[in-house]
What does this fold into?
Amino acid sequence: MNFLLVLSLAVFSLTVVAWVYVRDGALPWDTDLQSAPAITSSVVPQAPARLRLALDAARPTDAADLVLRSPWQWDTPALARLVAANAPAFDNIKDLLGEDDWQPRHPAWKTLDLGSHEHWQALGMAKEAAVAYYARLGQDESAMQAGMELAAMAKQLQSIDAWPSYYNRGVEWHERACKAIAGLLRQTSLSASSLVVMQAEFERHSPSEAMLKERLNGYYEFERRLIVGPRRDDPWDQPAASLTADHTNRLFFKPNHTLSLFASSIRELKDQVSKAPSATSGQLTRRIGPPGRPAGFPGGPNRSGRRYANDRIWRYAGLIEHFGLQRARHALVLTLFGVRRFTIDHGAPPRRLDELVPGYFTTLPADPYTSEPLRYDPARGLLYSVGMDFKSNGGHANDEPLSDNNEPTVMIR
It folds into this structure.
């Protein structure tokens, strides 16, 4: 009798354990995370093809030591060689930015992951070098136009609702644009009237909260497609049929439970977009664990799913950190436009930033890390943000503007 009781308890326990390890939950509610319906026009946009032409035509520098240095520090012959080698790519960029038929939500952008093309760094560096080269020749109008093309391309890339790599390239190009334009504004021969126009154009390319939130929705749908497969009318099924779930054969991987981790985490990240930049909340860490260390019991029933979620979600969490830096860099360069215009009009830089209101700004651009005006040291010629460490250490003077993430700084002379 005792033997039968023990055997029954053992069978029952094994059944419960097996049920816990095998049973998956229901699909999470995620209506709030769905993007607007993709455009399915029969007219295929030309922008993806033009973008590929520009990337294919890009040529890297032939001097490996230059890659680690700002183009402003290169000698003129090196700048000239890179600009000449990339003339066809630059022509394609001009055509691309003039293209009316972008349709960033069209499924055609999902046909090929151009955001992972090997020539992005080469093309971005060449465009940044063009700004320095034209400035070296005294052609500041051409230099500023090259910088604005960097900024315009950054905004367009971040608008594409497709592979996550497009947004990442947009972030990189925005940083290049800010560094290039800040270097040009440090000493420029452009007139005040020209700077008014350029300031307005640069402001139009500012980082967008709404755009990042919409891209986070798109990334959720991207991961949903990978984890549980397509839903009816899923646009990923049309041009990217090869994008299929690859986790169904993993042991201890519960698709629905894993997707629930993504849904909760993406909602939290979207909420953080509208807040002052700060360290990602402890709630996200508790849900999926710190980077590289999945939360939950190591031998738990969904350990493969938690490992996958930990690896993927922290990549998207990094976008929030980058967004704070984007906003800070943009605010610094935008303010630098006003300082340069003030200097031209008055013969000297302002003593305080509030002198720029209302003649040059309706309200001063704010430091996203403090929601207050940026820090300004006219004696040292520095304009800076407190940066990611939220501490003011007097700015970081460097020949390469915006080179310190903890204290992004531009020089006014």
